[in-house]
Amino acid sequence: MTAGPVETCRKARRPRPVRWRATVILFYLAVLTVGIGSRFFHLSPPQGGVPLDHALFQPLAGVGQPADVPETTVSLPHSMKVPGAGRFGGGLYRLEFTYSPDSSGPWSVLIPGYSGRILVRVNGALLYDSDWTHSGQSVTLIWPDIIPIPEPVLKDGTNTVDIQAVMLVGRKSYLGSLHAGPDALLRPVYQRHHFLLVMLPRLLFGWQIAFSMLLAIVWMVRRSEWSYILCAGILLFNSGSNLAFVIPESLASPLVMQLSNLSFSWVTALLVPFAFSFVKRRPPRASLLLAALPLGTVGGFLLLPPGIFHILNWYVAVPVAMALACCAVAVLLNAAFRHGNDGAHAILGATLLGFLMLSHEMPFLYGATGARLSINPFSIPVLMLLSVTSIVLVWRFAAALNAVDQFNAKLRREIAEAEAALRISLTREQTQERAIALEAERSRLTRDLHDGLAGQLVSMVALSGRADADARDLGTAARKALADLRLVIASTAEVGDDPGMMLANFRDHIEPQLRALGVALDWRMHALPEASGWSSSTVLELFRLLQEATINAARHSGAGRVMIEILPTDGGVRVVVADTGCGGATDRPGGYGLANMRRRAQAIGARLSIDSSPGGTCVIVDLPRLTAVADQAVL
Question: Less Cβ crowding at N or C end of the chain, within 10 Å?
Fold first, then answer.
């Protein structure tokens, strides 16, 4: 059984060198080092002020409505279970700190991180509601805040801070440890938290939008590369889960904000087709069924009661999404370690780093004690992974363009080298052709002189040796030899591809001969097209044919005028030699005149017709436009 092309390529694939394997090992070791080391990274708390790490906690039945349960003491950070999607979940945290007036400036309350929505009161005065600045409807976002305390609100001694934490979606809310103290002391710490938890995700959010547009444009240029448009869709849908970074809840309806939490279903539905396309494999047909996950999730949110949807979302949709993500990772693993796909290694490295970062943060978000949660547990790792993926795709596109440019440069070099070689070969062939043409022309001239002038000179020598030779006969023979020599010289004139100039040379040659015989020449020439291939041998045969026709008309017709007309035809040029004499031009026994004319016409590929009647004789020569073929056949 013959192996298929894919199997043949796999068999022919050379193993990666040892240096490449060592590089891959070092890459994953670096990822593990950074991922595990991130566990020990934390932002230092304020050096001073009053740490607030314990609070009295009481569940809420509604905003500003404590539930009928006693208060309990909890340690901060603290996580609170949310009843379910669409159902109110909240708690009241009551903290106290001691304030004494000094010259340290105004005071503030620093909240390094929380999820959902919070309302902050100091000594009963509402100072902050997070809905004023951003939405609390997102499940995955952790926010820092600093709340300045107006001086009239503060009082000497014990002050009370009440924080209402509200979460309508997700599974648990989160509130980190607080600090109260001078604003100048707390604000630098807040700015560091704000950059890491808010500004950095915003930058990555803008990165996603820009790269999704860029990848969509790239896909429009390379329609066969589906990985570009699939990654653009993943980036675009994932950016929907981060709308709260840029859009306050007052500018978007709660429905839009809650639907943004379901964008994970669209992202994971595209992961498997993207993974197959990225490694140049055809996605399975069953991947079309993946559209059921986002459609079912959105449909369930819109149609099912909140309680039922909450159960289906967390216990069906989320596990399915995680399974799809694992399938995509498996495809990339196979491409990376079995087939040496460098881009797959880069994406897997970012995936591993994101997983390690999440593994450090998630326990604190879901109830573990401690002061951690230094990063946004969902947004930054996911955005970082997608950013690396988009960079890999753009790098691949740039590498493809670079390969095309290199191929074009190589092709241009090879073409230039081939042109140079062809130019040398052509020069050599032209030199050879010129030598061959020169030799052929020399042979032709020798043959023409031998057949024409040499025969006449021999006749003159023989005539001069006779005792009864007449000087007039000798003069006639000499004139014929001179006329033939002039005819040969006229045929060698360089006139290019202009038949009119060639025939004008014939006129200059024949007109004095007619004048000597007492016959006038009626020359009529029309505009003629260019004609290629008029060699000297062709012209000489034509001149001899026309000369014989013209001299015969002058000597034997009895007419005092011979008309020569040259006009164009569809196939070439027509030359007409006519007189108004007695006619009667026929082949006679022992005569070679007409036979020689027919032989010459055949030699140059022309068609000859002779019409001789009592009213005169008309010789018509139809010359083809391309006479080079006939001329080469003669040679």
Answer: N
DSSP, residue by residue, 184-230: HHHHHHHHHHHIIIIIHHHHHHHHHHHHHHHHHHHHHH-TT-HHHHH
User: CA-CA distance, 75 to 63, in Å (whole number)?
Assistant: 22
Q: CB under 8 Å, gap of 24 or more: what pairs does 356-362 form?
A: 356/32, 356/35, 356/36, 356/38, 357/35, 357/38, 357/381, 360/38, 360/39
| Separation of alpha carbons 516 and 472, rounded Å | 15
Does the pLDDT of residue 377 top 60, yes or no? no
Residue 206's CB: how many other CB atoms inside 10 A? 13
As a whole number of angstroms, the distance between CA 385 and CA 352 comes to 9
Q: Which residue blocks in 13-73 are alpha helix, DSSP H? A: 18-37
Question: What does the alpha-carbon distance between residue 441 and residue 635 come to, in Å, rounded to a whole number?
Answer: 10
> Sign of dihedral through CA atoms 392, 395, 400, 403?
negative
Preceding peptide of 51 cis, ω within 30°: no
User: Where are the chain's structural domains?
Assistant: 496-635
Amino acid 585 reads: A
Q: How far lies 175's CA from each of 89, 219, 372, 466, in Å?
A: 14, 44, 11, 143
Candidates 3.40.50.300, 2.40.50.840, 3.30.565.10, 3.40.50.11030; CATH matching 496-635: 3.30.565.10
Q: Which residues make beta-bridge pairs with 98? A: 158
Reported as a single tens digit per residue, the pLDDT across 579-588 is 888 877 776 6
C-beta neighbour count of 416 within 10 angstroms: 10
Indicate the residue type of 173: S
CA 48 – CA 378 distance, rounded (Å): 31
Task: Quote the CA–CA distance of 236 and 222 in Å, as a whole number.
Answer: 19
Residue 372 dihedral angles phi and psi, to the nearest 5°: -80, -145
> Could you give the angle at the alpha carbon of 83 between the alpha carbons of 80 and 88, nearest 5°?
95
409-444 residue pLDDT tens: 888 899 989 998 888 988 888 788 777 766 766 666
Residues of the chain with pLDDT > 90, as a percent, come to 10
Tell me which of 24-28, 29-33, 120-124, 498-502 is least confident.
498-502
Residue 397, pLDDT above cutoff 50: yes
**0.90 exceeded by pTM:** no
Q: Is the pLDDT of residue 90 over 80?
A: yes
> How many angstroms separate the CA atoms of 180 and 395, rounded?
48
Query: Greatest CA separation found in the chain?
Result: 165
Alpha-carbon distances of 43 from 111, 361, 585, rounded to whole Å: 13, 14, 123
What is the rounded distance in angstroms from the CA atom of residue 518 to the CA atom of residue 515?
A: 5
Q: 496 pLDDT exceeds 60?
A: no
